[in-house]
Specification:
Elements: H1 2-13, H2 18-29, H3 35-57, H4 66-83, H5 95-106, H6 111-120, H7 126-138, H8 141-170, H9 174-199, H10 201-215
Length: 217
């Protein structure tokens, strides 16, 4: 029971930051019927598979996986500005891949959002790493899988609530669209800051000291 309670609480309580990391993705998938549910299923499914691997291995080798997360949050901020009509639409994705992703997110069937969720579950996240460490501590594939299932289900409420808020803002006129874009951009900026702080806390403190010296004269 303890193997499930700890990751469940980690998802429920630590999931406060989840809307900042993945809220934009959740809002995009929530545009279609059952899209948000399919996205959650794909994301949690990936967590379960990772938990089984972690439980079998008994340890986690995190690696430098934070760089793709920083790039993703930068792109999310750019797309947020484009969503508000403040900058041209980004063209960083090859046209062919962009069409595939567009079909996945806008498909009336939930399979596209399910596939997107499966990939989303692989995005770098300190909270997920912590949950995987709990899964590894279980020492068994099935226990690790159950631990990550509990964690994934714990993150669902706040992520769903964040998606609904962004969707309501986005469908209420230009000012609400800009408010939604600002919320996504702010969460993306916070995500970058959190990742940089996690990777290089000493460098972050030096950067802040330099900024204070510069602006303080």
């Amino acid at each position: 029971m303890g193997d499930l309670l700890a990751p469940l609480l980690a998802g429920l309580l630590g999931g406060v930051h989840c809307p900042g990391m993945c809220g934009g993705f959740a809002a995009a998938c929530a545009r279609r019927p059952r899209g948000l549910l399919a996205w959650h299923a794909g994301r949690v499914g990936t967590y379960v598979l990772l938990g089984a691997v972690a439980g079998a291995a008994g340890s986690l080798l995190p690696g430098p996986a934070w760089v793709p997360g920083v790039v993703a949050t930068l792109l999310l901020g750019w797309f947020a500005l484009a969503f508000a009509g403040l900058v041209p639409e980004p063209r960083l994705i090859p046209p062919g891949l962009g069409r595939v992703a567009s079909r996945a997110l806008t498909s009336p069937r939930p399979w596209g959002q399910l596939a997107f969720g499966l990939v989303n579950g692989l995005l770098p996240c300190g909270l997920v790493y912590s949950a995987l460490a709990m899964a590894a501590a279980t020492g068994a594939p099935w226990r690790g899988a159950l631990a990550m299932l509990a964690f994934g289900l714990g993150t669902v409420p706040l992520l769903s609530a964040g998606a609904v808020v962004v969707q309501r803002l986005a469908t209420g006129g230009a000012w609400r669209r800009r408010a939604a874009a600002l919320a996504i951009l702010a969460s993306g900026t916070w995500a970058i800051w959190a990742r940089v702080r996690l990777v290089d806390p000493e460098g972050t403190r030096d950067f802040l000291r330099h900024c204070m010296t510069f602006f303080g004269g």
